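User: For my dataset I need records formatted as: sequence, then structure tokens, nothing else. Please produce one.
Assistant:
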Amino acid sequence: MTSNTQGSPAIYGRSGPIPVVFKAACPDCRARFELAAGALRLAIGASSRTTFYSFTCPECGAAVRKPAGERIVELLTGGGVRTLRLHSTV
């Protein structure tokens, strides 16, 4: 997962803001593509095992869920991806 804007959501060109897109791949059909921030969801849990991002593959329609380490979380949140914070019930 990489961002074309180095994690900065406020990049402006001559005609206004440049949309943030992220490069991704589907583990099912192996397609590679770019997704807008609105096509991704980030869930931040209490541990690295419960922190992940998800999207639907535009090629095959598979629901994809991948782990998100610190750098991925930084890129996605900086790029405007909607984030859900998961709370543990202790």
